[in-house]
Structure formats: structure tokens, C-alpha cells
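Collaborator request, handled under Task 6.
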Amino acid sequence: MIPDYDNLPVHEVLGLPYSWGLLDPNLGSLSNIPADAVVRAAQGVTEGEVIPLNLSLGDIDPPMFGRTKWQHSVHAADRNTFEDVLDSYNPQASSQWDGFRHIRVREFGFYGGVEIADGDSETLSIEHFARRGIAGRGVLLDVARWRAQQGRPLDPFSDETIEAAELEAVANAQGVSLVPGDILCVRMGWVSAYRALTAEQKGSADVSRQFCGLRSDEQIARFLWDHRVAAIATDNPAVESAPGNVTDGSLHRRMIPLLGVVFAELLDLDRLASRCAILDRYEFMFVSVPLAIPGGLSSPANAMALL
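C-alpha cells returned to the collaborator:
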């Protein structure tokens, strides 16, 4: 029996709840998806629409947070055959999954409190996500659209935070309820706003320095944990807001190495949001195939929604 957030063990030094030993050590919250949830998600595909949720590799240019820009070259393998090669490719430069090797909780280790030994390509590798695959019921909470309807639009390039109570309010307004194993997609409008920037604005360090996102506090952690989400996926660069504050701390550190909740970032949720609004339906089948990178700490999302 998985305890609720308030009954989780608390790290004696950090004073924060953790789920080490409660979930699959290499899958974390992805292990919340039961087989029957996948069946129900598949049965809910009624429109026959497939909506990719991935940005083009060229959309985020230059890559954020000082990441190296990928390079693409085409070579003639022989007279009639061509091959292409990606160099300096950072899987986190576009729509992506964070793996459990991405972030540690100081000297206390990665998820499960483990350290990664040199040459160990198995422990906490993103390849575990790939071997399992990610499929189940997706739920979209279109915070950007809801906030606009409330007459207080969300500014994607501000440090505004989205509270747990606001996620509940959006779900209620959309008539959707979260169930264990859902892949929760939260649209903040960041991708739309980024696309409207000039090349000069995209190149500014301010783009990486400040953006809206989920608040990094205990209420958000409790919301995600107690709803037993399989993953949280957003259209902003980090799920949480930036630069954040010392009082709330880091949502990445709360959720990934301590609780094992899986993050996806920079998904393109705009087309999906438009269709959901037209259909007045905010649930869909979510499918993603991460790359099987031995020892990998991240992967392109390779995600899509089926309506």
C-alpha cells in the first residue's frame, strides 16, 4: 500500500518526504500505470486523431541554459544512398523527458539514495523508461486558456507560479478528474509565447532566466503525489517556475530524486489544447517512446496524443 504524501517517510536531514523503496527504483511514478489503465485509454480513442506533442529540433534556437546546439549533416554513403548524422545533440534541447540520473539530492544521492558507479549504465538509466514505454491516459489542464477566460492572463515570461489549488480549479472547470496513473499535461502558453519572439529575443539569457511554472512548494508536491500521477508534462522549460525562491526550494529536487515523479518539459501542447477545447474533452491516450540510451539521463519526448 502506497501511503499518501502526509504519511511518507521524511528524510532525517532534509526534512522532506521521500518514496525510496516504495516505487520501482528505475521507473518511479511510471510504475503507477496499471495495465487496465492502458486498455481504458485505448478504448477512449474515438476520433482517430493523432496529435504529435514534440517541438521541432530547430524551434528552441539557441538551446536554453547554455546547452550546446545540435548539428545536422548529410553524407553520401555511396552513389545512391545518403545518411544523416546528428552531432553535439543534447536530448534536453527540445521536447524531452528528465531521467533519474538528471538530478541528485546533494550528497544523499539520486532517486533511491543511490550513487552511480563509473561504468554502470544500468542503474537509473533512461533506458528503463524506453524498455517499458510510456502509454496511458493523458489529461490536459489548460491553465493558460482558463486564466485568460478569468481575465487574468498568465504571462509565460514572468516568474508567476501556478498553485495546486489552481490546478484543481482548472480540472473542475474542464469537468475532468485525475485518476491514478494519469500522465498530467499542463499548458502554460510558454511555447506559444516563445514562437512569437524575434530571433534576438530568443537569444537573450532572459529566456532561460525567468518563466512561469508550477510553484515548487509542498502543496504542489502533495497534489502530484496524492493523485498518483505517472508523470507531469508541461510546455514550459522546467515544469516549475524560474528563478524560484529559497522558501519554496526546487521542485526538481522535491519530485525527481526524492519522490521519483517523472518530468517532461517543452512539449508542444498548443494543437492538442485547441482540439480539446473544440471537443470539450480533456482526456486522451498518451503515448511516448523514449530513446533506449544505455546510462542515459534524458531523452527526446517522442510523444503523441490520440483522441
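The cover message to the collaborator said: "The chain has one domain: 5-61+91-306. The longest strand covers residues 134-142. Please let us know whether this matches your experimental observations."
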